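Long-time lurker. I teach an intro course on protein structure, and each term I like to show students one example going from raw sequence to a predicted 3D structure in token notation. This year I'd like something fresh instead of my usual example. Would anyone be willing to generate the tokens for the chain below so I can use it in lecture? Attribution to the forum is fine with me.
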Amino acid sequence: MGNLVTVTPIRPSLAVVERQVADLDDGYTRIANELLEAVMAADLTARQLKVVLAVIRKTYGFGKKFDRITNTQISDMTGIHHTHVCKAKNEMIGMGVIITNGIMIGVNKVVSDWNFNISQHSETLAEIANKRLAKSANTNKPIQLNTKETIQNTKRKDPSKPPKGGREGGSLRDELITLLEGKFDFNKAAALHDAVEAMIIDAGYECIREFRVADRGDGRPGRIDLLASNGEGDVCGIEIDRITPRDKSAVKLKQVASGFILVREGVVSDHYELDGIPVISAHPLSSSSDGVSRDEIIKNSREALEFYNAMAGAKCQDYKPFMTLLAPTQSRDGYSLSDLKAVIKWVVMTWKRRNDSVAKPNNICRVTRFDGYLSDALVWADGQGSNPVPCPHKEIIALWNEKFPGKSVVMHEWSSRRPAYRNLAAVWNGKTNQGNWREVKHLGQAFDLIGKSTLFSGAENKPWLTLDWILKPENWGSVYEQAINEHRQRKGIIA
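-- Reply from a regular --
Happy to contribute to a lecture. Here you go:
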């Protein structure tokens, strides 16, 4: 008998495919027939046609003539890369098909103004940037870029015709700094990105978003927020940070010919550089920044860090979180050094510790929460008070060991990581019944009274009876009160 062959019948797929049917009930775009016919007859490329239809959908589709529409939004709608969206949009602005209104765009209804006698062939900004970067890579090793030399040698071919807003004879970076510095007032990052991009394009430059670079500071690829070009091969990267510039922004910008950091909210009256990269403010400098210098902010930040390390028994080295709070913004003045110290003390004395560790500066200096932290810290300080003399831990522990040798504390084990350490500081910051700040002699008297109280009878059989237990907030008041009452009874004093 021959071999048997099993034949599996091939059946058509039975998967249910949902039919998509366009329906006016799902929405429609109201557009003049003459405008729609003009778009159909226009000599546009496929990309340009997609872009103008996207603009129509985002404006007339919502009953508006203009709207803030980003390149990435159009890219998501059309599937065109945002660099090509930027190119197509700029070409149609030149043709008069698309017009701008500040940072908003829309379709020009005056179809007689449309002009198609403009060349459709031009290099994209990505191509210009890549050529520029390739040339830079061939002439200089990319280990270190000398930003200052690059800027000095980067001149416009025709300095007598700088772009709108530029400075005659200046580098592209200088022109963009002059154009953008102090011109924006936005709380949201996306709105500022849109506005900066629109102003750069309106000034006659080309601009793309999220330009890829090889390293963002950790060995992984990164993106520069904006990359501008003057159309002559000169490029300049722009990183937009919130209050203080980030180290990784400087790392990314060093990988292009030139660049600078635009700070959205931070207000510092003097110009400075971060690792050779200029830092400027995006919004108009307000009166709150008068007299504020970066050197003063750095000095106070270092002092705040030293205070934190002393209070928390830590060895942190980065003072940048404190700089963020000391720098004024468009909505508030900078916090003072005393404000920072008040919050640090409140956190160390009251916050519950995780793994016996005090909250780190990054957690304390949360911009959106610090105002509430400061309010709670000031209320706590008003009720708690603070002894003008720092708590002399070693002296008090030595006094305890002298009076209670059987319950002595090992000195090198008494550190800020120990809960009783903070509890002793809280007792020290309290006042006596006469309203005076406590002194070492007062604690010595308290230890004498506690040692003579019935609590300490048979103390050798009470292993739980330690200084740590006595200093707990829930125990200290009752233990001390019991010792005073028993002392009065022995003296025959009626309370």
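Some talking points for your students: Residues 136-169, 285-290 have pLDDT under 50 and may be disordered. DSSP finds 19 helices and eight strands in the chain.
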